[in-house]
UniProtKB/TrEMBL annotation:
It comes from the Bacteria. Pfam families: FeS_assembly_P (PF01883). This is Metal-sulfur cluster assembly factor. Residues 5-74 form the MIP18 family-like domain. InterPro entries: Fe-S_Maturation_MIP18, FSCA_dom_sf, MIP18-like.
Length: 98
């Protein structure tokens, strides 16, 4: 059975094409839950007008759906709280010059 940590590891494969870093390092993953094999991921984007939303949802479904024990995947984008660079990991801040 997949764990929240397994899902988070899978989400490290979801890359922001503009920044070249993954959504976990960028602090864009706001929540992960698993209930009876169904994973739900709450995430945000760097800006509300970011055009990669559909691509991100497809990648979340692809990478999380490959995990053993996951029978379904859903995702939800939110802008509350708004994303800011201070949500990034120290490695991401360093890579982007913050």
């Amino acid at each position: 059975m997949a764990t929240v940590e397994d899902v988070e590891s899978a989400l490290a494969n979801v890359i922001d094409p503009e920044l070249g870093l993954d959504f976990v390092e960028l602090g864009l993953i706001y929540g992960i839950s698993i209930e009876e094999g169904h994973a739900h991921v709450t995430y945000t984007l760097t800006t509300p007008g970011c055009p990669i939303g559909p691509q991100v949802e497809a990648q979340i479904e692809e990478f999380v759906g490959e995990l053993e024990g996951i029978t379904g995947v859903s995702s939800e984008v939110t802008f509350v709280p708004p994303w800011s660079p201070d949500k990034m990991s120290e490695d991401a801040k360093f890579a982007l010059g913050f």
